[in-house]
């Protein structure tokens, strides 16, 4: 029987969903059809910060719970932290490059942008880290899909010197050649789970969970678990921008996880950066412990604790 994969209608969502559909068919022989779901986030022009991260996700989850679709593919970083009752993340496929990317006019890098250059991004995490560089950049809030953001720099009506985007989204849309600098995590630590996908289905759909597990990539799952555990623990105690990046490397005694985290004041003037290592099996505990380290170091004072 053909499986129904629910997807948003954006070019990025369609591309990601088609990639997962093709991988599933290749691994299991099961045909997959894409079912388009319109989310309130697609209909609104309001800033994502006001709509909340869940807007792109809840319409897909409603369709899943209503049985209109069998599974959904989300950009993992857009998922709210915490388990959703009745649903299960059955696979976390191998992650794309999690770093952020700069697309600037005339092939410029961050260091080559002149003082006062306009750089577009909507994410508080990127805004804070751009300010932290001390380059006198004019950070301009933007939103919209990946193509329209790139058009703000390279399109016929370009009005910005540069934009910062997730490299993964640009790559999936086949536009990596337009990236003028991939930002080192030393300058721009990525968002928790950036570049990763979550393949979700109903928690009681055991046959499908078994089928989808063919797409799971254990190192990516562990890295994302660590990053999001850190994020979830910080959310409770601190409302300042948060960044996280975990890497899995082969050590002498098996695999090691190396998690870096940062909390930055929105104006970029103060930042706390810390890291922890451990085994992938302890990913969630490492994330939680790093969040507590960050809070102990004063993360909550970077913006004031949540009201
Ligand atoms: N916030 C929107 C969003 N959600 C997922 C991606 C693509 C990258 C990814 O899968 O992490 C993007 C675009 C961006 O941040 O530039």
Automatic annotation (TrEMBL):
This is Porphobilinogen deaminase. Gene3D superfamilies: Periplasmic binding protein-like II, Porphobilinogen deaminase, C-terminal domain. Residues 3-209 form the Porphobilinogen deaminase N-terminal domain. One of its GO terms (molecular function) is hydroxymethylbilane synthase activity. Tetrapolymerization of the monopyrrole PBG into the hydroxymethylbilane pre-uroporphyrinogen in several discrete steps. Its EC number is 2.5.1.61. The keyword 4Fe-4S does not apply. Residues 223-295 form the Porphobilinogen deaminase C-terminal domain. InterPro entries: HemC (IPR000860), Porphobilin_deaminase_cofac_BS (IPR022419), Porphobilin_deaminase_N (IPR022417), Porphobilinogen_deaminase_C (IPR022418), Porphobilinogen_deaminase_C_sf (IPR036803). Keywords: Porphyrin biosynthesis, Transferase. The porphobilinogen subunits are added to the dipyrromethane group. Pfam families: Porphobil_deam (PF01379), Porphobil_deamC (PF03900). Its cofactor is dipyrromethane.
